[in-house]
Amino acid sequence: MPHTTQRILIVDDDPDILEFLHIILEEEGYEVVMADRGDSLMQLHNGELPHLIVLDVLLSGKDGRDIVRWLKSQQETRKIPVLMFSAHPSAEQTVRQAGADDFLAKPFNIETFLAKVAHLL
After folding, report:
1. Based on the structure, what is the number of domains in the chain?
2. With contact defined as beta carbons under 8 Å apart, do 15 and 36 qualify?
3. 16-68 pLDDT, tens per residue?
4. Residue 57: φ, ψ to 5°
5. pTM over 0.85
6. Which end of the chain, N or C, is less packed with Cβ atoms under 10 Å?
7. Where does the Response regulatory domain start and stop, copy by copy (predicted)?
8. Over the Cα atoms of the chain, what is R_g?
């Protein structure tokens, strides 16, 4: 186990998915921060940066791919791995082109999700 708890930020506009992922990740010992809007990613600062960002491709009013491009262009956040997910499997190619480190199609298997999280951390 790492000395510091690894912080994961989940961004999804579906409260059920947020809660579901929150429970799964907390059971695994991660510190979980949740946001239901992509705008919250624009306010990340060094002191509270997550070790991993789990981001939905389609958020109300924002495209997750634009958010990833922005995160990867910023000095503070460019090294944070981003795992994106979508109900559209065809989104994988555009997600990777935008700079996401990994992709998961919804609905997903919990073991697969946790394996991807562990791999990215």
Report:
1. 1
2. yes
3. 999 999 999 999 999 999 988 877 776 776 667 899 999 999 887 789 999 99
4. -70, -45
5. yes
6. N
7. 7-121
8. 13
